[in-house]
Write a structure and sequence with these properties.
44% of the residues lie in helices and 14% in strands. It has 330 residues and is of the alpha/beta class. Helix 1 (13-22) crosses helix 8. The model is unreliable at 1-8 (pLDDT under 50). The chain starts with 12 loop residues before the first helix and ends with a helix. The chain has helices at residues 13-22, 36-42, 60-69, 73-77, 87-99, 113-121, 134-145, 156-162, 164-175, 191-203, 219-226, 250-259, 268-282, 292-298, 320-327, and strands at 32-33, 45-50, 80-83, 103-108, 125-129, 148-149, 182-186, 209-214, 262-266, 308-313. Strands 1-2-10-7-8-9 form a six-stranded mixed β-sheet, with helices on both faces. The chain is globular.
Length: 330
Amino acid sequence: MTPTLPETLGVSAQDVLDAGHRLKGLVVTTPLVESPLLNASIGGRLLVKAECLQRTGSFKMRGATNALAQMDDTARARGVITHSSGNHGQALASAARAFGLRATVVMPDDAPALKIELTRAHGAEVVFCPRHAREQTVARLAAESGAVVIHPYETPAVIAGQGTVGLEIVEQCAAASVVPDQVLVCCGGGGLTAGVALAIDRLLPGVPVIAVEPDGWDDTKRSLAAGTLVANDGLTATACDALQAMCPGTLSFSLNRALLAGAVSVDEAMVRHAMRQAFVHLKLVAEPGGAVALAAALAGKVETADRLSVVVLSGGNVDPGRFASVLAGD
């Protein structure tokens, strides 16, 4: 049983429920899909929440749209700014265009080419900086321009919007007359994990939510063990660019510490295997960071035998060349 959530953390389950109503018709209700062969391989039942089919190719559209939908005209006139490896940037750019706002996205200078291209295609101005300088660059540019900062995992409305993934999981499981034994969610800064955990805690209390991270970027796992924020050293190479937050967010971690049942990490080979399995058995394109929760289930990082596991496949924005290499087994 997960701990009871304090009521003073800045984002509540009610905020997630409100976001669910607000986002009707603005985002895609993504399917829960499964494969009998994947089920057989883990000795249980596996339902995959296909957020790679969301608008702009990841769950990030939910949080960005929820945040912008609540801004007043004065704030919207200032425009918005964020930092992102690509998925949040694309989502914010797309939502900003829909609401008629200017958007600036600060991206690390090693961001994947496809994510840069798509962020620009959605109308954002892209500014590059070293990966470690993203927060400082956003703060400086926001001070100069007056733009509103929409943080990828520390803005409360963003966390609430991401939590609608959890709402849909609950609704879709209910429609299928099943109750999950566990829910696995990818974790970078922790906003998606926190939002999903809020929804599951409210609507399916007692169902464990587990964060999944890449090896070497398992700051949430280590922070949960330490009981306080622990940063990554940033030295480990990973293909999971979407999950390269240096440290959990203060707000997101306060929620995750109260709500998560635990966290696990997966290596690069497990991630590549999961990407191949998603394509072969589910006909889904997963980016590396989007595949870590599936990787954890397939690799036995959590117990799956005779259990119903739900995993969030959080995004599909992968460069074609990298994806072809993964499928070829390289």
